[in-house]
Write a structure and sequence with these properties.
Low-confidence stretches: 1-11
CATH architecture of the largest domain: Alpha-Beta Complex
Radius of gyration: 21 Å
Helix content: 25-40%
Bound molecules: NADP nicotinamide-adenine-dinucleotide phosphate
CATH class of the largest domain: Alpha Beta
Distance between the termini: 32 Å
Strand content: 15-25%
Length: 346
């Protein structure tokens, strides 16, 4: 007779839970846009392994990119998962893997990127006791967006005045700290006084609460010499106002435009015209997708790890407990509930 523990384990690993994109978003996501379903786990084939989610990333693109997802698909997303069974020597049992497996508790994966995936799965690098969740944040895609998007496009120079929108989110709070490492003056834009206080505590020189202050007036006061570079996480009117205040030859790194993510795909949201400022100040404005640096992925992670170990980078996470709360956590970041990187702990 099989011992009870084995039976319990078998039952536990025989089915995955996953969220499917069940109903098309209309504005802000709601819980009934998603459905929690169960799926049988098939036996492993050679080259495959079974990964059990530990932490799942919550990112704004999950709202923006769903127009690509057919209804009924597993919601997209990255996770850090523990390998609990394996027929792949490169992904042995007991190790942790970072994979774009979607919103699911258990995944049968191999070495290749799956259908909706941009990067192949990779083992969590040796990192002496760093919390696993960091490999979704400061040591993962979020950290690499900050590192490459800022270093390669804003090209910081000591003494620069740098403005960052979405400053208290995972990417923005990280960019601000890199800008400080590089000797810049950093002005963050955020939507709450609590977030503003945290940003000041981690070294931001100035913070503007765009919900309670007049952004144009505050920018003119805080950056009288105007702005050398702007790291844009939000787009829309906030960005138009920042861009009006750029210096000659200023640089703009366009990372995200969260202010438009809840609008229907293909709609044409309006904001103040920016072309006169771009022309008159000969600005360089460049958008990016962090996947463009996939061949330098570990360089970004290692640099951020080094800064973290040296105490030059600090982080905050908003951790939602329970896989069943994935939809709530996504709604949360789109409502401004998070400070720092948002993750769900299974
Ligand atoms: N291009 C790429 O490859 C790439 C990679 C990663 C991320 N991104 C983009 O970078 C941006 C930041 O990502 P993240 O992971 O740091 O986000 P995050 O940590 O989830 O931060 C989201 C924050 O955005 C702010 N926000 C929400 N709705 C807003 C609105 N309508 N207008 C202005 N601000 C709003 C809120 O902060 P407040 O309370 O301060 O408003 C919210 O807490 C997103 O646009 C994301 O899509 C792009």
């Amino acid at each position: 007779m099989m011992p009870l523990r084995t039976i319990v384990n078998k039952v536990k690993i025989s089915k995955a839970q996953k969220f499917i994109y069940a109903r098309v978003f209309d504005g802000m996501p709601k819980e009934d846009n998603f459905e929690l379903v169960e799926e049988d786990i098939p036996p492993l084939k050679d080259g495959e392994y079974l990964a059990q989610a530990q932490f799942l990333s919550i990112d704004p693109y999950m709202r923006a990119y769903t127009y690509k997802l057919p209804i009924g698909s597993t919601m997209m997303g990255s996770q850090v998962a523990k390998i609990i069974d394996s027929k792949n020597p490169n992904f042995p049992v007991g190790k942790h893997v970072v994979g774009e497996f979607g919103w699911r508790t258990l995944t049968v994966a191999d070495s290749k990127p799956g259908a909706l995936m941009r990067r192949p799965p990779y083992l969590v690098p040796e990192s002496e006791g760093m919390p696993l969740s960091l490999f979704l944040g400061i040591l993962g895609m979020t950290g690499n967006s900050a590192y490459f998007g800022f270093m390669e496009i804003c090209k910081p120079i000591a003494g620069d005045t740098v403005v960052i929108s979405g400053a208290a989110g995972g990417v923005g709070s990280h960019v601000g700290q890199i800008a400080k490492i590089k000797g810049c003056k950093v002005i963050g834009l955020t939507g709450s006084d609590e977030k503003a206080q945290w940003l000041r505590s981690i070294g931001f020189n100035e913070v503007i609460n765009y919900k309670t202050e007049n952004l144009m007036t505050s920018l003119r006061e805080l950056a009288p010499e105007r702005i050398d570079s702007y790291f844009d996480n939000v787009g829309g009117e906030i960005s138009s106002l920042v861009i009006q205040n750029m210096k000659k030859y200023g640089r703009v790194s366009v990372c995200g435009c969260i202010s438009s993510y809840n609008l229907p795909y293909g709609s044409l949201p309006k904001a103040t015209i920016i072309q006169p400022s771009i022309i008159m100040n000969e600005l360089k404005v460049k958008g990016f997708l962090v996947s463009s640096w996939k061949n330098r992925w570990m360089e970004g992670i290692n640099k951020n790890l080094e800064w973290l170990r040296e105490g030059k980078l600090v982080y905050k996470e908003t951790v939602t407990k329970g896989f069943e709360n994935m939809p709530k956590a996504l709604i949360g970041i789109l409502s401004g509930d998070n400070i720092g990187k948002a993750v769900v702990k299974v």
